[in-house]
Design brief:
Layout (H helix, E strand, L loop, with lengths): L22 H10 L6 H4 L7 E7 L5 E8 L6 E9 L2 E11 L3 H25 L2
Antiparallel strand pairs: 1-2, 2-3, 3-4
């Protein structure tokens, strides 16, 4: 009787395992190689745009307020974000579109008034 499942292909052969190298010797060899320079040092920092305000902070970062242009459409927008050593900090910025500027400006003015009221209330309570 004929085999219903004939072997069509030969079973793959695994290569013989290489002799185990001394892990400590391998680690020492890797430590002796020169370290690669960080990727950020090889790139040029991004253009911050037209900087309107640059406010240094206690932690060494800088709050930067700048007008930039979108990379795809070229539309201007306001960028407010933290920068450190000439680079924007990831996840620590906000972009405000031109059509949003007046409502944001009004909200900031309200915030200044509210903070002034809070400071005045605190001064009345303090002995």
């Amino acid at each position: 009787m004929r085999d219903p499942f004939p072997a069509r292909f030969a079973a793959p052969r695994r290569p013989a395992p290489a002799p185990a190298a001394d892990p400590l010797a391998r680690a020492r060899q890797l430590l002796q190689r020169p370290a690669a320079a960080p990727a950020a040092a090889q790139r040029t920092p991004p253009d911050p745009g037209h900087v309107l305000a640059e406010l240094p902070r206690d932690d060494g970062s800088t709050l930067l307020v700048a007008v930039q242009r979108a990379t795809t459409s070229g539309a201007p927008y306001l960028h407010v974000g933290l920068w450190r050593d000439g680079w924007p900090e990831k996840g620590r910025s906000v972009a405000v579109r031109v059509r949003e500027l007046l409502p944001v400006l009004a909200a900031l003015a309200d915030a200044v008034e509210h903070v002034d009221e809070l400071r005045a209330a605190r001064a009345e309570v303090a002995p």
